[in-house]
Amino acid sequence: MPRRNERQESSRSGRDNKRPLGIPAYEDKLVQSALAKILNAIYEQDFVECSFGFRPKRGCHDALKLLDKILNKGYIKYVVDTDIRGFFDSVDHKWMMKFIEHRIEDINLRRLITRLLKAGIIEAGLKYDTPQGTPQGGVCSPILANIYLHYVIDLWFEEIVRKRCKGMAYMVRYADDSIFCFQYREDAVKFYKELMKRLGKFNLEVAQEKTKIIELKKDTQKKDNDKGSRDKGEESFDFLGFTHYIGKSKDGRMRMKRKTSKKKYKASLLRCKEWIRNNRTMPIRKFMKVFKSKIQGHCNYYGITDNRKAVGDFIYECRKLLYKRLNRRSQKKSFNWDKFELFLKKYSLPKVKTHVRIFDLGIGSSYLM
Question: Which residues neighbour 158 within 8 Å (Cβ) at sequence distance 6 or greater?
Answer without folding.
Answer: 48
